[in-house]
Amino acid sequence: MSTTTNTATKPPAQPPVVKTYSDYGRPLWRRILLTREMAIVALLVAVLVVASIQLPRFATPLTMTNLLLDVTPILLISLTMAPIMITGDIDLSVGSMVGLSSVVVGLLTHSGWSIPSAGLVAILVGAVGGVVNGLLVTRFGLPALAVTIGTLALYRGLAIGLLGTTAITGFPRYWTQLAKSKIGDTGVPAVMILFAVLLAVFVVILHFTSFGRGVYAIGLSKDAAAFSGIHVARTRVILFVLSGAMSALAGVFYTLRFTSSRGDNATGLELAVIAAVVLGGVSVFGGRGALHGVVAGVLLIGALSNALRLAGVTSDVINIITGVLLVGSVIAGSLLQWIQSRRVRPATTAASA
Amino acid sequence: MNSAASRVLGVLRSREMGILLAFLLVVVLGTLKNPSFVFSKDGWHDLLITPSILLVVAVGQAIVIITRNVDLSVGSMLGLTAYLAGTIFVKYPSIPWQLVFLIGLAFGGFLGLINGALVGYGKVPAMVITLGTLYAYRGINVAWTGSNRINADQIPQGLQAVGNNSILGIPILTIIALVILLVAAWYMRNMRSGREMYAIGSDPDAAELYGLAKRRRVITAFVVSGAMSGLAGVLYTARYATINSQAGYGFELDAIGAAVIGGVAIVGGSGTVVGAAIGAFLLYTINRALPVIGIPDFWQKAVVGALILGAIVLDRVLAVRQSRKLRETKVETTNETKEVAA
Domain B19-300, what fold? Predict the structure, then answer.
């Protein structure tokens, strides 16, 4: 320690000390295992293990099917919510977009369109909604929170306005069955294949491309990102468009799974998505987070609520647990940081003294 | 220009004036279509009483937003306090109902204190904390209430009278809301701690460097928001007298919407509680006016959304114009001083 700090008192004859830096401050296993994301993954595994032992009906294909089907819309939307929140933005309009997409699919199917073409139009509508969000945020320099509170009301309003309080329920049996179908006897819903493909795509985009690095850079500092040549506005708009389209896709699935198109479908879903994403380790300040944590966060909330329901706890207690988990997980982060700063500070003062 | 005239001009040019005009426009349109929209006993009563509970919550919300935070848990705090009030009446039917107002204020304030302490000491964005407590408070409410419901015959007549009667043609609920609004407006405008909240909201770091008690002010803002939500919960009990576990569900978006429409910038530091109050009136009056004007009320939410977007875009345009004007006057004055020096 003293050789590096007290250069002035060194005898001049001594050859200069060549400082070498290791590539990382911590060994590989610590960097992979001792993370916020891994804590959530561990918690998820713990919940799954305990639930499987304690609840005989938990580790059955039927439970797994329902659990996964329940969380599919949240899983899908969390893939785009995570990068949006990593840039420091937020999209509160996703739940409303699920509703609007559901209504669009319902109305088009009702007037004779096939499900694929109706679904495509719905996804297009979602993308347009994302463009509106993105342009309002970037062109006018408005905070994403305010803009998407507005479009939350607007898109939900369009959905309810288009369909009123009626519901459209007649959908082709082939598609509604497909939404609920399973892969062989495993109990894993077929829609998980779609999710796995999308997950792979987003993992590559976010973690292995320059676009993805740009997302993190924007979240850490928009100005610095702009100066290092990242298209800040374009990136943010693209993410909002992806978010709109993904929400619409989730809306198509939601409609087919419940065989019902209603204006108030998926009300409040945005909060569930954000809660899961934050629980999964994405910082609300932006710049931090990873998709494996996000997926684990979504599954953790889903598995907990499912297990509690099986254990006979009223399904509503899950609200308390979601809230406490959310607050607890972020507070724990601050607390750890505080403890670390307390531990480091005496050492540095001793060194400088 | 003398000070009185410039003050009048200032009021006319203020952001609140635009919202007030929009509100009056809605009222006039509704009245032209159907005079009983305003000029009937029920119409007048509804016009004033419908936004009153939202107004109370929006005042608290505006104060929180001014400090550059947000309180998403107001709907859950309202619901929880409303059910607490109902339960008190069921368990202790003889309790004076006036006391329940104080209990509601205190209980709401306590819930707000939890929010504020977590935000102030946890160094976590208010949005995350209050999203968490939104779930937690509602969850406690649902776990406590279950499928139970408190009915009108369990609520004292005196309280129900507060919720539905009028004095001199003005509903008591509205009078309560307006008194709160006046106190809050006076506090935010004239008190040192109120001004400090604006300072904290416009630049938290500068406020801290300047030595303002940032944490204490932020916690105060959350306690006020909680107390207002608690009071709104008792008012809810007074007005509807039927309480289940879903009372106040989704109220947070109406409250934030009212504040934002009323010119309270979501990034903090500007706007007034009066604006938020007018925003609350505008929001709920549009609700009632749409069917009268001939638009199916299904479209109400879409109109509200468009209104929020319009309001924030307008605020932004005004802010940009203002800063440009400030820069120009700065350049002019520096030029003048240069000439004087020469």
Answer: ABC transporter involved in vitamin B12 uptake, BtuC (1.10.3470)
